[in-house]
């Protein structure tokens, strides 16, 4: 038996009025069903993208705040470096005035004592770039 190419929908009102009959081709009905599925899929993807966009906006705001905080910290570090350079200059000037030998700035990581440092009694407690008082 061959399937019919049309589907008939019969609408009957409860009040007993006249019925309404709609005849649709199967292809039209299939296209409408596929179209509805596509619309639901697109709405779902759109909602998901909207939520992701909102989350990314929040993340961007947090990252901008962190960036501003890091820029402030970098500014503070630069100010501290300038202060340290001024203090080192002042230290060298004071040592020159007092007649103490001016040592060149120590290389970071050079913890080995020099030959002339071993004569002082507290050479083990001194570290490079530290001034004893």
Summarize the SSE layout with pairings.
Elements: E1 6-11, E2 20-25, H1 26-98
Antiparallel strand pairs: 1-2
Structure, briefly:
This protein is mainly alpha-helical and 133 residues long.
Structure description:
The protein has 133 residues and is mainly alpha-helical. Helix content is 55%, strand content 9%. It contains one helix and two strands; from the N terminus they run ββα. The protein has one helix spanning 26-98, and strands at residues 6-11, 20-25. A two-stranded antiparallel sheet has the order 1-2. The protein is rod-shaped.
Overview features:
133 residues, mainly alpha, two-stranded antiparallel sheet, 1 helix, 2 strands, 55% helix, 9% strand, rod-shaped
Integer-rounded radius of gyration: 42 Å
Report strand order across the widest sheet.
1-2
Shape: rod-shaped
Number of strands: 2
Estimated share of beta-strand residues: 5-15%
Please, what is the average pLDDT? 82
Outline the biggest β-sheet: 2 strands, antiparallel
Terminus-to-terminus distance: 110 Å
Helix percent band: 40-55%
Structural class determined from secondary elements: mainly alpha
Order of helices and strands: EEH
Number of helices: 1
Low-confidence blocks of residues: 115-124
């Amino acid at each position: 038996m061959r399937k019919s190419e049309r589907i008939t929908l019969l609408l009957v009102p409860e009040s007993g009025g006249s019925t309404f009959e709609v005849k649709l081709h199967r292809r039209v009905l299939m296209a409408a069903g596929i179209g509805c599925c596509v619309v639901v899929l697109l709405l779902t993807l759109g909602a998901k993208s909207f939520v992701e966009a909102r989350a990314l906006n929040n993340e961007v705001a947090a990252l901008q705040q962190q960036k501003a905080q890091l820029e402030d910290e970098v500014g503070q570090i630069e100010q501290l470096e300038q202060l340290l350079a001024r203090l080192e200059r002042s230290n060298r000037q004071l040592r020159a005035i007092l007649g103490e030998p001016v040592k060149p700035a120590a290389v970071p990581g050079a913890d080995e004592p020099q030959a002339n440092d071993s004569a002082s009694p507290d050479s083990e407690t001194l570290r490079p770039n530290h001034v004893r008082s």
